[in-house]
Amino acid sequence: MEFFEGLSKDFSHLLNESDDCDVIIYADKDSNVQKFHAHTVILRARSRYFRRALSRDWAKKENGVFVFKKPNITAQVFEIVLKYIYGGTADLQEQSGNVILSLLTASDELNLGELIKYTQEHLIHQKLSWLQENLVQVLHTVSCLEDCKTLREFCLEMICQDPRFLFRSENFCTLDESVLVLLLQRDDLQIDEIEVWENVIKWGLAQDPPLDSDLSKWMDDDFKTMQSRLSRCISLIRYFHISPADFCDRVRPYAKILPEDLHEDILRFHLKSCQQVRSVILPPRIQGIDSKIIKPRHAALVACWIDRKEGNSSTCERIRYEFKLLLRGSRDGFTAAVFHNRCDNQVPTLVLMKVQNTGEIIGGYNPTSWRRTSINSDSGYFPSAPWGPHQRKSALSFARYSQYELGPFQTTSESFIFSLGDGKKVEDFVLSRITRENMCSAVYSSPRLGPCFGRGDLKMTDHFNAPGKCSCEWRDYEREITDCEVFAVEEYEVFHIIDRGTLSSSISPDELHEISEDKPPIMTSGNHTLASTSSTSSTSMSPIQNRTPEYTAYHAGW
């Protein structure tokens, strides 16, 4: 049995009893100074700072009492600190954002790790509007506090998702150089590179002493001053991802602040379309994704897999796909009915899941359509096929159990399932593509089920957030993606993947009905379709668009 509440109250009463106090602390300064009484034994037990400060080698007594002066901590904040030290409580509901930020600074100085964590979480979850309005002040405060990484990272991510919070702020030009450098280093800053350049120039012009924005009035010393101010920033701009026109009109006027070799390489790159340059070509910034499960860097990795680029996302070019959110479980519901209402006939789709309790992120990519109805089966159970897992099928069996014969199964060589681990390290992933032998059971649709890949490789039945309603049983894909055989999801999302080079990649219900009623049976590989009486070809390199499928060569070999 634990009695922490009573213990907290008893210790809190000691704050109001000064008879046996042996520490006096003066907080705040000038007319706001306030005197606090405390006990050595409690301060030392609760704070590493006071453990050192009250040591024999450091502290000195006056009339048998330790005396401290903390003019850098306001009396209001120090009262909150003492209540936490004595009673283990901190009520911040009625406190302003400025007071809470000051509390964070004081907690860092006094080595109160538990209070630091709680204060950061309170600002993020309870003071979001205040954070958005005071980003520069907050970043200035937390950028130098080692234990405030959570709040610092949250603010940087918020800026990256919508840079206007910072760049349109009247305080932007007072931003610390170190914070500006942190932003420029990020790959997920959601803004055109030319705007990054112009905001860096805006910041440089405003530093003390300010420079005239009219370049025609600049002397050589002005260019040297600007070059010195931006010395840490210049190399972080992604010049090779700025259009030739924007470079010529908006960057080249400042050519004197660029290293000569870099300027020549940019000219050579744009004017001669020459890829062989000596300067380091930084990758393009990763475009965002409206997800509560993954970050833009994970979306970039998935985009590489869609393009069959198996390496890390850092090797990929600018993401060519838009991730359009169709469904979020916590917002729309976790049932199969909701899934089909929102996701049927959207081609292709990405399914993401966050596993309850473990936090593991898993998912699958379906280049074909999800369907509420099927030709032969809507039972919600997987029909028995005449072959076992990983067994080669004959041409006859393949035809007999094709998309339109088998009904709920769809054939493709482009689907895959994956795990991103806990998502903290983008390189910690497992990618598992559909095997050539099992293409005809790549994706399964049923009105009673949610997203299903293979004959159970990744399966969501119904009420996906209930225990045991999701499962992974390795059968048709290359490898197992998780040790969780049966689980529930904490959150799940479905995205429509749209090639930015096309108007849309969705198929309307009317179009799908017309195909199924008026055309010969069709087999699919990726999004390439093969009618039984003819075939088509395409020169597009995007797997979202038609292209020569692996199935063609595979079927010809049977």
TrEMBL record:
Give start and end of each BTB domain. 21-94
Which SMART domains does UniProt cross-reference here? Answer: BACK, BTB
What are the start and end residues of every segment in region (Disordered)?
A: 516-545
InterPro entries reported in the protein's UniProt record: BACK (IPR011705), BTB-POZ/Galectin-3-binding (IPR051481), BTB/POZ_dom (IPR000210), SKP1/BTB/POZ_sf (IPR011333), TLDc_dom (IPR006571)
Domain of life of the source: Eukaryota
TLDc domain span: 292-490
Compositional bias segments (type: Low complexity): 532-542
Identify this protein by name. Answer: 7497_t:CDS:1
